[in-house]
Amino acid sequence: MFNETVLFAFGLTLFAGLSTGIGSALAFFTKTTNTKFLSLSLGFSAGVMIYVSMIEIFFKAKDSLVAEMGEKMGSWVTVISFFGGILFIGIIDKLIPSIENPHEIRMVEEMGEKAKKEHKNKKLMKMGMFTALAIAIHNLPEGLATFTAALTDPSLGIAIAVAIAIHNIPEGIAVSVPIYFATGDKKKAFWYSFLSGVAEPVGALIGYLILMPYLTPTLFGILFAAVAGIMVFISIDELLPAAREYGEHHLSIYGLILGMMVMAVSLLMFI
User: Quick check: 98 and 258 in contact, CB under 8 A?
Assistant: First the structure.
């Protein structure tokens, strides 16, 4: 059922998803948030994802659709699928209430006396659980995006998996802080954060079971174009605003440009 390429794609998706655990660990084992590192990293991740989506994935999808449908129809379907992917992830994002939204920035410094004093509050526990659930739901299409890219082009999949992994680190902090506020239990906060990342390989599994049996060149092109849209939305709506909220605007832009440059060079190396 699973060949080596499929297992490799699942492995990359698992790596990307479970990196939420890195963010959770940082929240517990460091005293302050390294805002410069996070801003640069998030910018870098956005640069990789935007460049690879617009330069590589979009045109691979277009080539596949044009070959099946002709120049005009294939081009139209590519563009519609691209914005369809943006609409899909946008709807998911809209359905998550802002107070529990995984994009809410949390700081390691919040893990202090305030949390210890408030840990008996049941309302905080509910909020923390909902935050973990919200991130898990949000991670499903990211898992599908990573898996699809890795299945098509392993070297492309590695780049996207690393970008998604970087993006998931502050999400791990975002889960850990409210869960710890709610319970005062570091282990519980870590495990909820860690498990919220499992949604990414679950998204890949759903995609594999539902879509792979019907993966014609046309469906592949539509899916790949939608993946490009999903990743562009994630970059613009999540990564860059998050980097700015950490207070290092210029570093996030430098990271963005660096990410694009690294991705451009890596793609040229495989020509």
Answer: no
Cα angle 132, 177, 246; round to 5: 105
CA 150 to chain centre: 14
Q: Which residue has the tokens 């499903």?
A: 140
The residue segments making up the domain with residue 210 are: 4-269
Amino acid in the structure at residue 105: I
Domain count, the chain: 1
**pLDDT band at residue 62 using 50, 70 and 90 as cut-offs:** very high
Question: Is there a contact between 51 and 260 (Cβ–Cβ < 8 Å)?
Answer: yes
Percentages helix, strand, coil for the chain (3-state, rounded to 5) are 85, 0, 15
- Residue at token pair 């899916």: 223
Torsion sign across C-alpha atoms 225, 62, 56, 144: positive
User: pTM of the predicted model, to two decimals?
Assistant: 0.70
The C-alpha angle 100, 203, 243, rounded to 5 degrees, equals: 45
| CA neighbor of 171 nearest in space, from 129, 112, 140, 131 | 131
Find, among 160, 147, 270, 167, the residue nearest to 209 by Cα. 147
pLDDT tens, residue by residue, 149-201: 888 788 888 888 888 887 777 777 767 776 776 677 778 878 888 888 888 88
